[in-house]
Amino acid sequence: MAGGVQVGPSDGGRGVFALEAFRRGQRILKFGGAPYDRAYVETAAAAGLRDVYLQVARDRFLGPSGGPDDLVYHSCHPYTYLSFDSDGIYLVACAAIAMGEELFFDYGLTQIRFPFRFDCLCGTDRCRGSIGDCHELPAAVLAEYRNAGMVPRHIEDELRGLGDQMRTAAG
Questions:
Q1: How far is the C-alpha of 93 from the C-alpha of 143, rounded, in Å?
Q2: What does the alpha-carbon distance between residue 49 and residue 20 come to, in Å, rounded to a whole number?
Q3: What gap in Å lies between CA 39 and CA 124, rounded to an integer?
Q4: Sign of the CA dihedral with 71 first, then 74, 80, and 84 last
Q5: 102: DSSP letter
Q6: What strands lie across the sheet with 60-62, from one edge to the other?
């Protein structure tokens, strides 16, 4: 599946670029890597190691795969998202992507109590200045992602739980 992308020079060092045009809804790249639990990733964060983990469930993460999926950077205004399907985790186009464009997704759309925090340097008109957890996404952005079907199930479950907690606290 990685045949439609290539790694090349990017503002962030090395990034992933489309070798072909992709249409909305098209799978672009499969994500992989060794699985890790929350305790392992929290220990890595506490030790000051750099973040190389993708959160795939509340307490599950993937480490580096050694492939191009390790180099897909964050953007606060992405045109791809991660789809958690029965046969794997895929980078999917949420808009048409032209050949040669660099690929980005919004890291905040996969993160729940994520042990690492970073400043955002995406430079888009919607840049939030920092990359945080799913519940920190601006309401309008989250609504847009939901309407486009971009929100993973584990994130929806987390947001639903947070809403229930807020309603209980207010009641």
A1: 18
A2: 35
A3: 34
A4: positive
A5: B
A6: 35-37, 60-62, 54-57
Model confidence over 119-150: pLDDT tens digits? 998 999 999 999 999 989 999 999 999 999 99
Largest CA distance in the chain: 53
Please give the full DSSP string across 28-96, using - where no structure is assigned: EEEE---EEEHHHHHHHHHTTPPP--EEEETTEEE---SSGGGGPEE-SS-SEEEEEETTEEEEEESS-
55 beta partners? 61
User: Distance between CA 156 and CA 143 in Å, rounded?
Assistant: 12
DSSP 8-state symbol, 12: T
Cα→Cα distances 103→6, 42, 93, Å: 10, 28, 9
pLDDT in tens, 89-98: 999 999 999 9
pLDDT of 160 > 90? The answer is: no
* Tokens linked to 50: 């750099």
Q: From CA 73, how far away is CA 96, in angstroms rounded?
A: 18
d(CA 21, CA 133): 31
pLDDT per residue as tens digits for the range 42-91: 999 999 888 899 999 999 999 999 999 999 999 999 999 999 999 999 99
